[in-house]
Amino acid sequence: MISDEASPVGESPARRLRSLSDGFEHYLSASPHDYERVLKNGMVVMDTNAILNLYRYTNEARKELFEVLRSLRERLWVPDQVAKEFWRNREAAASDLDYFGDELIEELQEARLQIERSLRTWANRVALQREHLQALLDSLDPAFRPVLDKIQDIAGSRSEGRSRNTYEDPVLLELQEALSGKVGEAMEAIEHEEAVTEGLRRVEAKVPPGYKDKKKEDRQAAGDYLVWAQTIKEARFRECEVLLITGDVKEDWWRKESGEIRGPRLELAKEFYSAVGHRLYMLRPPRFLELAREILNVSIANETIDDANRVELSSYELRERIDTASTVLASLRSDLLNYVKNEPRLPLHGDSIQLDDFPALVALFYENRLVYLGFVRSDTTLRQWQRKISGRRNISVDDVSFVAAPLGEDQTDDRVLLQGMLAEERPEWNYNGFGNHDAGRMRAHTALREEHFDVRYPIDLSFSVPFADVRTIGELFDALRRGLPYRVHSSLQALSEVADREIDSSSLDGSAGNALHVLVHSLPQGWQITVMPGLITIEPQVRDVPGAQFVLRSG
């Protein structure tokens, strides 16, 4: 029996003809209408670096980005894996500004010492009288000191709130408000293990996303895939398109043509469409802000977009440089380690640290064991280390020695990656505060771990300081800051208001501890001197400080 719906003899069965793009949607570029649709009706996903970069924006730019996030309301979503990575990396992102501020200060101090050396060399050649040379050297301090103080104040003021204490971190507090009810649930244990296994398989097979994270330790290499899998799962539940906001520019996420980003990797766009039935879009934060201004009618200043571009560019350039250098640096690792472990060691004092072969990788040894590996641009850093150790208890600089492995100038640009590779040695001082730039105000609010360098070797308050002709609070503070081999921190603005108050200079016996007692008796009521394991703070407020060795209060 022939069906009524059968085709007449000689005619082909009915076929559905497709358009050119049917089945090839992943090749299509996103149009302005596509972005408008996904921003108003889809799901907007923030990845880890896009969130962490909030710590690197100016206050104004960050405020406007938070306005955009709030305008998205229920359309904003963050995978559980992103939340985990955020908490794992928050403190490092929050302290970036302090690091780069202190790095600049160190470079300027090195420049000053180089000028001093040049002046002394010239003075010897022209037989300049000693008093004339000293006058030239003395003129350097008024030139450098205001610059150093200003940099310190700017870095400190811009880092206010980027505190390791979560309850004092305004960036975190705003993030918690903006992302309230918008963070995905953690995967069940079995599902998570399966996802990690698949992520690691993709890394080895170079299947996107995540294979560019192969250098990460163990299971962390599967992090990008976990973000991807959780995003697909949520999009399937919501049955919607997704716009992923990411600062990641690696090839395992983006499709690039002639060096320019064209959209998500074709494999990812195809996989997403197959799993969800909707399209995937991706944007970097600067372009996201531009579209949010146009589509969501949120006020975004051009300066905010410029700031987002600045943050993205600096991160991108660093990653590109590291990727390019990785092969060469890998071959250096074993040679450098063998060199520093087998070369004769020099004492960390006297003429031994006046070397010419810099930049270099320097290994420090304490009581015959390797305790620190770090990059040094000049012997200035060695003198700073020697000075730092000399002002500590429970340790003697006579028990510290070093080996310097010279590096070429072209290798120092890649020191970040090389240090990461050398970090497999995990010398004990590399990870407990010795080689870190002082965190200043942050460290002044933080209780340190028992194994921290400052706790093991706290500052020595019996250290001698020259107090010649010291008559006022300001002069005493300057003498302490310049004479002590550890940091003495105070608000320069607050200190300037009491700087001219006289002190009882006859009570000074030359030690730091005694000077602090003289100082606190001269300060107005309500001031506090806090002695931390690694620094001293002097501030016009009374408060409890975690980890303080002791506290002196005026009045």
List the SSEs and their pairings.
Layout: H1 32-41, E1 43-46, H2 48-52, H3 59-72, E2 76-77, H4 80-94, H5 96-126, H6 130-138, H7 140-158, H8 170-178, H9 189-205, H10 223-238, E3 242-245, E4 254-257, E5 260-264, H11 266-276, E6 280-283, H12 285-295, H13 302-342, E7 346-347, E8 360-366, E9 369-376, H14 379-390, E10 400-406, H15 409-412, H16 415-422, H17 453-456, H18 473-483, E11 487-490, H19 492-496, H20 512-522, E12 528-531, E13 535-539, E14 550-553
Parallel strand pairs: 1-2, 1-3, 3-6, 11-13
Antiparallel strand pairs: 4-5, 7-10, 8-9, 8-10, 12-13, 12-14
Q: Describe it for me?
A:
With 555 residues, the protein is an alpha/beta fold. It is 47% helix and 12% strand. It is built from 20 helices and 14 strands. The chain has helices spanning 32-41, 48-52, 59-72, 80-94, 96-126, 130-138, 140-158, 170-178, 189-205, 223-238, 266-276, 285-295, 302-342, 379-390, 409-412, 415-422, 453-456, 473-483, 492-496, 512-522, and strands at 43-46, 76-77, 242-245, 254-257, 260-264, 280-283, 346-347, 360-366, 369-376, 400-406, 487-490, 528-531, 535-539, 550-553. It has a 4-stranded parallel sheet with strand order 2-1-3-6, with helices on both faces. Strands 7-10-8-9 form a 4-stranded antiparallel sheet, sandwiched between helices. A 4-stranded mixed sheet has the order 11-13-12-14. A hairpin with a 2-residue loop joins β8 and β9. α9 crosses α10 (223-238). The longest helix is centred in the middle third of the chain and has 41 residues, at 302-342. Mean pLDDT is 79; it is low at 1-7, 157-162 and 438-442.
